[in-house]
Design a protein that fits this description.
The structure is a single chain. The protein has 100 residues and is an all-alpha fold. The protein has 6 helices and no strands. Helix 2 packs antiparallel against helix 6. The longest helix has 17 residues. The chain is elongated and about 55 Å long.
């Protein structure tokens, strides 16, 4: 049986968002939460001391290591972010792919 690459492309396009979220969560899960790193945050780079999103990556990294207290201290919405992204990934995979 010859593989149909057209259907593979349609499947990839239909699930692209899920693959982006899975990649993002995986990268945050394997990053070290204690190391300092370069920041892409525009507010931080403009000199503001507060940003509502800063610390979210560290919170997710602590969460994947099972440390809920450190995760909450890094960012209170880290647990909610993982739950929402997991729900979105499952929702994307539950939808049927229409081949044409």
């Amino acid at each position: 049986m010859k593989p149909d690459f057209r259907h593979f492309g349609q499947l990839l396009r239909a699930r692209f968002e899920a693959f982006v979220w899975i990649t993002g969560l995986t990268l945050m899960a394997v990053m070290s939460p204690v190391d300092a790193h370069a920041s892409f945050c525009p507010l931080k780079n403009l000199g503001f001391s507060f940003c509502p999103g800063c610390g979210l990556g560290h919170a997710i990294a602590w969460l994947f290591r099972g440390d809920l207290v450190q995760s909450f201290h890094a960012h209170p919405l880290g647990i909610a972010a993982v739950l929402i992204l997991t729900w979105r990934i499952v929702d994307i995979f539950r939808k049927p792919v229409l081949y044409y």
